[in-house]
Design goal:
Layout (H helix, E strand, L loop, with lengths): L1 E6 L7 H12 L5 E7 L4 H4 L7 E4 L8 H14 L3 E4 L2 H14 L2 E6 L9 H5 L2 E4 L2 H9 L7 E3 L16 H6 L6 E6 L8 H10 L5 E6 L5 H10 L6 E5 L4 H4 L5 E4 L8 H8 L3 E5 L12 E4 L4 H13 L1 H18 L2 H18 L1
Parallel strand pairs: 1-2, 1-4, 2-3, 4-5, 5-6, 6-7, 8-9, 8-11, 9-10, 11-12, 12-13
């Protein structure tokens, strides 16, 4: 039995924490036992009932907290941990220092595209898992040793995200089957490109198209004001945060992710798993998950986005064809099973090296 200690200093709940939870819940429980150290006020800790692991509340306010390092060290020793797996800036330092003191292996997963301040904490880990080849190449450029790096794409639960079009969203919003729904599911943050999408949507000539914005975040008020300024109140609907994304995603006809930076673009993969045609900006790891399932457009170019949107709006058969190819792509390369299989292989290889 290989024992894994996951550390997470992030207090929020997004793609990063979702990936960690999915991975934990799908690991082979006959071979791996998982423990999680995270602050008590973190969303990961609050949702622990749905995660198949033993949790330890550990405060991680500073990356140099001796108290936190000592707590992690004691957990490693008491539970006989084999591998420490870190995720965010603060817990990466705390986790790898505790692992080094205890004499066990350490892995860091890099979930983001944003520039790193220093390669040091990465090079202290035995392995660094990257969620896309783009992230891996970027870390090499910034001084992380290439031999430590490997890519394991984020996996989508294809049993949860599936092309089951139940019409929930259309009934809730009072929309007919004839109306074409363009959607985005993302935190309302500048880098996600909501403003670019609204600019493009305002240029569309198709009256039977609606834009559905799902998510919440710091840009909520600014986006609402922009919708009003562009006179899009009748055509754009902001639904806020939803826990039923997997059920309403199949109701979309087109999914758009116009990010200015993106490590991979997991929402694109979730939409593809639901059989929805996708459009994504040509940045970061997005090109790795937009192939025959959709089309790339130039980042920051609303005219390029309008052109690609109009093609899909006008061609029902193309939307269906790309949706079907998206489902096949996710099942083959981006499923949870593929992510888990590669991660388990990494754990086993590291254990043999002990």
């Amino acid at each position: 039995m290989i024992k894994i200690l996951e550390t997470e200093s992030s207090l929020g709940w997004g793609g990063q924490e979702n990936r960690t939870a999915r991975l934990i819940n799908h690991l082979d429980s006959t071979q791996f036992k998982v423990y999680v150290a995270t602050p008590k006020d973190a969303e990961l800790y609050k949702r622990r009932q749905g995660i198949r692991a033993e949790f330890f509340p550990v405060e991680m306010r500073k990356s140099y907290s001796l108290k936190a390092i000592w707590q992690l060290y004691r957990i490693i020793k008491k539970e006989k941990i084999d591998i420490v797996s870190t995720h965010s800036g603060k817990d990466a330092w705390l986790g790898v220092m505790a692992a080094r003191l205890a004499g066990v292996k350490a892995i860091r997963t890099r979930h983001l595209q944003t520039p790193i301040s220093s390669p040091l904490s990465y090079n202290l880990h035995d392995k660094v898992v990257c969620v896309s080849d783009f992230v891996k190449e970027d870390l090499v450029k910034r001084g992380v040793q290439k031999g430590r790096l490997c890519t394991i794409h984020t996996g989508v639960d294809v049993s949860k995200y599936a092309p089951r079009r139940e019409g929930i969203l259309r009934r809730e919003l009072g929309l007919s089957e004839e109306e074409i729904l363009v959607g985005i599911v993302a935190v309302l943050r500048g880098a996600k490109g909501h403003k670019l999408l609204l600019e493009a949507f305002a240029k569309l000539s198709s009256p039977m198209v609606r834009l559905i914005i799902i998510g919440d975040g710091p840009q909520r008020e600014n986006i609402a004001l922009m919708i009003e300024r562009l006179n899009l109140q009748e055509r754009v609907m902001m639904l806020g945060h939803r826990e039923d994304v997997a059920k309403i995603m199949p109701d979309l006809d087109i999914f758009v992710l116009p990010s200015s930076m993106e490590a991979l673009g997991t929402a694109i993969l979730e939409a593809s798993a639901c059989g929805v045609a996708v459009l994504g900006s040509n940045v970061g790891g997005i090109p790795e998950c937009v192939r025959e399932n959709g089309q790339l457009f130039e980042a920051g170019d609303s005219d390029s986005l309008v052109k690609n949107l109009q093609v899909l709006i006008n061609d029902t058969s193309k939307r269906k064809e790309r949706g079907a190819k998206g489902r096949a792509l996710v099942e083959e390369e981006f499923s949870v099973e593929a992510m888990v299989r590669k991660t388990e292989g990494l754990y086993l290889a590291m254990e043999r090296e002990q």
